[in-house]
Predict the structure.
Amino acid sequence: MIIKALGKEYNVKDITYKERRELHRLNAKAFWDGKVDPENYYDILEKVSEISGLGEKDFKGLSMVDVDQILQEVFTQYMGLSKNEDGD
């Protein structure tokens, strides 16, 4: 699966149903009751990094903010939350 983020393409592993359910559970914990729990949010990003196969070599020279943006984009794609480029 190819993810585009910060003007670059990243080749990430496909996500399984079980992994997707786990991310969904983590997401619910991070955004429970209209509040953001930063600790749980970063658990999501760490799990996304683990599932995707992205790691230190992929993030060389990037700030932690950039790394978070990339992992957030991967999460968004994994969960089917982003719009298709053709607008659907």
Notes: The two ends are 19 Å apart (CA to CA). The chain has a mean pLDDT of 91. The beta strands are 2-5, 8-11. Residues 2-78 form one domain.
